[in-house]
DNA sequence: CTTTAAATGTTATATACTAACGATTGAATA
DNA sequence: TATTCAATCGTTAGTATATAACATTTAAAG
């Protein structure tokens, strides 16, 4: 189990990880039901593995886990599940790590933004309307239409900075 | 030659590409001389190829170009040159494309930020103190120390939007 | 049921990157 | 200028990430 640090967005103290995973899956089921998407066994399991890990998770780690359980997965099995989950907005890809993390909807309506601690490998999905506004202004100035934002801030979280 | 669109940061009208490449290499030479870095033939040629392309350029495309010229390059040849150029701040890696682009210093002192047109594949490196400020504020709120920012905004540039 | 589109299995391959070690080069200095 | 030593480069091999293509299975809809 992850040791609990003490700051806000990275805070894991009082984090009931079992409930966290359960909630994420419930949200996924609700969303898929609403949108007429099929959360199949593989897709559900991949999502669950990502939430269990609660860190950016690599495709081949997922592949190994799936294979340990069912013994018959090839890369496309996992990549197709990941593509589905990405399209459904249930996970995000962290481009700078080639890894995937559950969407906790902390970005609200805005674009997702991540603080990534290199020491503990944990990721916080943060809202920041101010960043969105500033980027929207820059885009407008350039006559640029935004589709997607990749905002990944690498560094050190408070807990890791404190422990040296 | 790239057809010239008409907006600001993506503007290529009146762009003398030969001079642009030449300037970039001159800047690189100056910087390396100042810092006691060795801009060797391979490193220089890789940088030049990236600027000639003037788009995010893949490592293996560079490898193929080098091989067409000299016939004896393996992946490490290119990756080592890219590592050098990255460390020297002469190029940036676009994480969302696994590709590399010349640093045009448009970010000034701040972290580099990119507008990436999916239609024409061109990239504009934009300054935005407002974005930097907003992110710094969010990081501070979280007690997070920033090392590196990956900010890549995908979308459509004005010229591509106009031509449909 | 039957049909059919979606999902999955399977094989193969493309793309991205790195480790390790020997050979060469070139800058510093004896 | 000869020597030395660290930086650079060549080379082989391997690991990591991702996709193409097509066969088979599943399950939703008629």
Description:
With about 160 residues, the first copy, chain A, is of the alpha+beta class. Chain A has two domains: about 15-100, Arc Repressor Mutant, subunit A (Orthogonal Bundle); about 115-160, Dna Ligase, domain 1 (2-Layer Sandwich), CATH 3.30.1490. Chain A is about 45% helix and about 20% strand. Chain A contains six helices and five strands; from the N terminus they run ααααββββαβα. The first copy, chain A, has helices at about 15-35, 40-55, 60-70, 75-85, 130-140, 160; strands at about 90-95, 100, 115, 125, 145-155. In chain A, the strands form two sheets. A three-stranded mixed beta sheet of chain A has the order 4-3-5. Chain A has a two-stranded antiparallel sheet with strand order 1-2. The longest helix of chain A has 19 residues, at about 15-35. The radius of gyration of chain A is 17 Å and the shape is globular. Residues about 1-5 of chain A have low confidence and may be disordered. The interface of A and B includes residues 124, 126, 144, 147 and 153 of A. Chain A binds a DNA duplex (30 and 30 nucleotides) through helix 4.
């Amino acid at each position: 189990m992850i040791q609990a640090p003490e700051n806000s967005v990275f805070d894991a103290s009082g984090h009931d990880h079992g409930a966290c995973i359960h909630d994420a899956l419930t949200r996924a089921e609700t969303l898929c039901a609403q949108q007429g998407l099929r959360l199949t066994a593989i897709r559900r399991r991949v999502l669950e593995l990502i939430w269990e890990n609660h860190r950016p998770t690599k495709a081949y780690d997922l592949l190994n886990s799936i294979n340990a359980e069912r013994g018959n997965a090839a890369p496309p099995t996992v990549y197709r599940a990941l593509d589905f989950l990405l399209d459904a907005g249930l996970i995000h890809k962290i481009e700078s790590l080639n890894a995937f993390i559950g969407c906790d909807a902390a970005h609200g309506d805005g674009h997702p933004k991540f603080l990534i601690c290199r020491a503990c490998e944990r990721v916080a999905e943060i809202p920041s309307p101010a960043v969105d506004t500033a980027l929207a202004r820059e885009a407008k100035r350039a006559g640029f239409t935004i589709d997607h934002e990749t905002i990944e801030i690498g560094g050190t979280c408070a807990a890791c900075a404190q422990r040296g």
